[in-house]
Amino acid sequence: MKVGVYKSDPFVIIENGQYSGMAIELWESLEKKMGLSSTYISYPSFRKLIEAVEHGEVDAAVSNLTITKQRAQSIAFTQPWYDSGLRIMTKNKGSGSFQNVIDGLIDSGHVATFAWLLILALFATAIITIVDRRLDSEFPRRWREGLADNFFHTVSILTTGKTTHKNLFGWVGRIWSAIWMVIGVGIIAYITSSITSVMTTTSLTNQIHSLSDLSGKRVGVRDGSLAEDYIQELGIQTRSYTDIDTAVQGLMSDEVDALVGDAPVLEYFTHTHPEQPVRVVGNIFHPDKYGFGFALQSDLLRPVTLELLGLREQGSVRDLRVKYFGNAR
Questions:
Q1: Residue limits of the Solute-binding protein family 3/N-terminal domain (predicted)?
Q2: Does pLDDT of 52 surpass 70?
């Protein structure tokens, strides 16, 4: 037999020309039961795999192939052998991280305002230093010492509202000091509120926990997958990838804001790639089932289905699930 496959760890794993994975092991168990022998042919997407079965290029499709009404119009499916659904993968980054806050402050224009406030503080420092050098005989005569002393004095007023500077202008100086302290309180309030608001906005923007959070986002999907069809039906912008590895690369490089795919595939990736800062979030949505695909009039459909039901009753399918996903599934 010619068997078409689509690489999708852990169901179809292709390494150094060798085929393994849960779907492959299950298929090879069926082969032994039926006395068959297969040659595997790999395809770059689910869509290409289904077309190959439909056009007679291969006798069967073996992968985590979701059973849908649309696909069942082109090919025939065995009884389901795995319950699945869709989940969301996001980049595992802190929503309040330093870089995110800086980017938010730049985008909102606050950094430019901070720069002008710093220029104002430096200007005030220079003016006070010039006046002190002329009127205060005890003031440091070296410029760097005088500027440093008055810069500390200026920042102290801005941040604490307190001043220990010598009053050289009598009651007029007191009034100006009071005004400067009021300005300092306003500046600190502005800086605090702007940073807080940016952190809150950044947190809300970066949080993706469910399907409803994907509105307005760019979502990565695998080409020809159920996830691609479903997300596009919702009117959400998608970007297609050939496999999970390139999809995760797109997520890490900010080509997309999140990935949507088969829950077990995403979960398996995060489990086997702990070095990747990604996580699977939210509950499973759009529940579905996997089956093997055949041509509509294939003579193999019924006998394969019967043997598949037998393996399920014997617990062989359950044992494979435990092998690849543990007792949680």
A1: 2-328
A2: yes
